[in-house]
UniProtKB/TrEMBL annotation:
GO MF terms, alphabetically ordered: transaminase activity
The keyword Hydrolase belongs to this UniProt entry's keyword annotation: no
Record organism: Streptomyces milbemycinicus
Cofactor(s) needed: pyridoxal 5'-phosphate
Protein name per UniProt: Aminotransferase class III-fold pyridoxal phosphate-dependent enzyme
TM spans (from-to): none
Record keywords, A-Z: Aminotransferase, Pyridoxal phosphate, Transferase
Pfam families reported in the protein's UniProt record: Aminotran_3
InterPro entries the UniProt entry points to: Aminotrans_3, PyrdxlP-dep_Trfase, PyrdxlP-dep_Trfase_major, PyrdxlP-dep_Trfase_small
Amino acid sequence: MAFEEKVDIPTLSNGDPHVRRGQRGFPLLPGGYGRSAYHIGSAPTYALRGEGYRLWDDRGRELIDAKNNFTTLVHGNAHPEHIEAAGRAMSAGSCWGIPNVDEWGLAELLLERLPGLDQVRFTNSGTEAVMSAIRIARVVSR
């Protein structure tokens, strides 16, 4: 049996291109979207681009982005200074598996701003950060 046959795809109107895009997403992503808290109900709106506090969706509407990616985009989408800084950083290389001076600089900045810290550990994910915190807690609480 094909994957699409196993998924409960809501019956939607075929006249709206937004709805067709939503139906395509249902077999790919649960509910048609990749985050569990985005939307409940009919086919979701899909963002095509963002600039500052504005978003443009697949229906051609300009929207105000009140979520700001759940507050991680405090400066909005595609901020010109962020794009320029990211371009500068990427032109020097994007990722290494060894320490680098930018990592040291950020650690020094954090230690200056947070005087209760002695050291900084950078991780790749929240899961890795929690695992590190559990290891530290086990050592400290022995």
